[in-house]
Amino acid sequence: MEDFIWLIPLMPLLGAIINGLFGHVLKGKAGLIASIAVLISFLYSVKAFLMVLDGVTFDGDLFTWIAAGSFQANFGLRIDQLSSVMMLVVSGVGFLIHVYANGYMHGDRSVGRFFAYMNLFVFSMLMLVMGNNLLLLYLGWEGVGLCSYLLIGYFYDKPSAAKAGLKAFLVNRVGDFGFAIGIFIIFTTIGTITYSGIFENVERLVSAGVVTTASLLLFMGACGKSAQFPLYIWLPDAMEGPTPVSALIHAATMVTAGVYMVARFSFLFSYSETAMLVIVIIGTFTALFAATMALVNNDIKRVLAYSTISQLGYMFIGVGVGAYAAGVFHLMTHAFFKALLFLGAGAVMHSLADETNIQKMGALYGKIKITALTFIMAWLAISGIPPFSGFFSKDEILANAYAYHPLVWFFGAVGAFITAFYMSRLVFLTFFGESRVDPEVEKHIHESPRVMTIPLMVLAFLAVVGGLVGIPQFVADLWGGSNHFHHFLEPVFAAANERLHLAHLSHALEYGLMLASVLIALGGIYLAYLMYIKKAIDPDALAAKYKGAYTTLYNKYYVDEGIDAGLLNPIVVMSRWLWHFVDERIIDGLVNVSAKIVMLISLLVRRVQTGYVQHYASVMVIGVILVLGYYLFS
Amino acid sequence: MVTINIGSSDFAAILPILVVCAFGIYLMVQGVLAPRIHKLTLAYIGLAGIMIAMVSNFYLLGIETDRAYFEGMVFVDKLTVTLNFIFLLTAALCLLLMTSYSEQEEIEFIEFTPLILFATAGMMLMGCAESLMIIFLGLETMSIALYVMAGFRRFNRFSLEAALKYLLLGAFATGFLLYGMALIYGTVGTTNLTQISAYYSENALNLNVMALFGVALLVIGFGFKVALVPFHMWTPDVYQGAPIPVTAYMAVGAKAAGFAAVLRVLVLATGQAAFEWSQLLWLLAVITMTVGNIIALVQSDIKRMLAYSSIAHAGYIMIGIVAGNETTVSAVLFYLVVYMFMNIGAFAVAGIVSGKNEQHVDIKHFAGLGKSQPMLALVMTVCMFSLAGFPPTGGFMGKLYLFKAAMESGYTWLVIFGALNTLISVYYYIRVVVAMYFQDSKESVKMAAVLPGVGLVLLVTLLGIFYLGIFPGTTLSLLY
Questions:
Q1: CA-CA distance, A10 to A16, in Å (whole number)?
Q2: B260 located within any domain
């Protein structure tokens, strides 16, 4: 396998270099080059996946990257069941989004830069999932963070975009700080950074008493990257970036890096019940909390952003309760339907002259039919209507949550109800009801070009049938089938599963939970139908009645304001003092004085350099005398 | 009766040297017999010779290595091969620089190619020496060629002055070197380095003054070639006066040759008694770094600045030598390779900016280069950052390996001095970058055209610096 896998990350890197250096010359061709680069990666990923399917895995070093004494960091890749799934998602969904971006970014003044960043992102993300050691994971981890920053702030002359990029970067630094320390703890305790080495020696972390600390610190990094409470605040603002970016980075791939990492280190996490409990609590809280904020938001992309945060919470519930395959399964289906939702939102905005307020949409169904139909598929998938993909993955997580503790299931189910409701609200307000579109814009409504709609259709297909690879075992038993996805990932999580001994539910209970899931989803949709189509319940009156709750939600629980007042303002005040007093007066003063002294010495010493050979020879003789004298008298 | 056995395998051991010498002799004769031959033709034949030597150099890996040839005169090991590679690549790059330099200066060229080949042969002899005699032979072959090359702009006062100064002081230093060798021979009774090594390690605790003086004088002799303070005084004047490609060749090739000899004698041969001179070398390293960097601060002439910078870098390399442990050789070799790329790159850009008669060698002439010649400015920036030791350039990794070798041997203070010196050096390297990007040129500078040969050199240096900075591991394992 090692004869071709190195090409998978290399292709997008080459694309990034070409577009980065010659993007201004290539102009329109930049997108083509970028898409082809990712397509090649995808094809090789398929090849790798098929080999893994045949039972061939790879874990080895391609070359020595850094060697310093006993420390050696190799450029090593690990292609197993987990990474091959991730590679398919990253390069496959990535390719579709690249194609879409060709249409979406058409006519932008610096497409070369855009596609260079996009390719660099795909490269980093592939490194993140393909590496076989913590250093490559960290390289990819920081690389995707950098690309996220660059792409959120892509419209850099727009202050809000520049600010959002900075916010994403800074919030992620908080998480990465913990992540880095977690890596250091593992390295200093075990002395290796390769996954295989760590898994063989997890016991040493346990005996050193740091396994919980290390796990929690790693999870801290995951919280930042995967936008979990309290480090989620950057993701809604990240919607300032171009929509394909939101689809690729802030829905399908980068934000799932945390879930991937926890799944990858499942064996490590399985040693710390505390860490797993923390993951479940944070995941559950985030799933519910973020969903409520999506209830009242009127920005089509921000609703999807809160939805993403909430869905990531579900994935963490999955990996937190030990249902790793379920978490990764939801990661995959979510990549399909959430990328589709974002691209659909982008297509809507494209048709409406970049309008993002859903209160100014409505009745678009007849006018942009492909966009609307594909969007509806994704809506049904995320709401959890069988047999769409989201149903199977979410249901598996919730069933496992019930086995962990019924309370987790309960909160998850409430979240699912809210999800079905806000997604339905979004769909009804956008595509149905009466038109509230600006008359001036209304005249120009048009369906997006093929290059955008074809990726939508492919993703819609995946969103519809993607769940069929992971039909729950008890259902598959009906015709003697099996949960293929689960079985495929089995080898990766076998060690952790063996330690955890997950409880099994009775068939009756499983059917009952599944039925409850469907009813909950239908209930959410029906409530939204009553409010936004039938108008049986007036949303405005409801908002006026519960004004306190409504404004709290509308203002996102004032979390941003709270962080500003409680954390940022004191830091700014202290920083100012450090800047003006400590830095300018004390440190700069010392530095300037020492620099002046060095300069003075320099001016004096150079006078020895007279240009006369006899002087030079004399200096040498003095040197010789000193050296020999040293030996004579020592 | 002494019988000397020389077989074909002995000649195989010095094949690259033979190739270079054969091409040198041929070109010298050719130049005289057919004086109208185009000067570039000679250079290209010379380049072909260097390429053949490079190929035959890899052939050395195929013969029996880690043993002496020619009755204990030359030694073939991985170090020999790596050093040969460094010398040959330096020669090729500098010869390429010289081809375009001679276009712009319209100077005679016929003797240049043979001279650079002979100097290279001398360096390679030093790199594979197993006997003090071979070191001396190589050193003189190299030096005499360099004396002539330094004065190659023979209608220029400074160039002639440089050649004369170099010759006088060089001869002076050679005296010390030879005296040191004589003292060692007097002590041990042989010039063979392995036997010298055996003697010094056996008697490490009670070496007499003669044995100590011998090595001390060797250090002084080599110290002159690699420009250690206080034996560095010739460096700025000679570097400034010599034609830029020759300066680059001296700064890189001659220094590498000097360190090759230092490695052979101090680390590999007398290294067993390292403690005796580690204190002396420690002191020389600190003084060299500090003086080089501090005087470089106030230089406005780019060639003088780079001259002091090269003195400072000799000090950094000494850090690795002082360490004297098993990582020393690979760290020093790695640094020499990086040093080759970043210095030749910097001198190549300086050669283009300076224009005809090297008129524009002040740092202020670099102002506005970022706008007028972005690619040149890029190469210069990368070289400056690498010289200053910023990641992800090779300069950073090079320093890291040197410092790490010293740390492993417990020379913490030496590393602290090295780090402080790096800090000082940032000022004068960045000054060039600042000039290129943040200052507008006040006078219009007429630069030399960037000919394909120089373009190739710039590309090679740029790629080399980044390759070594990003994939240092692969190179390090190849070197030693």
A1: 10
A2: no
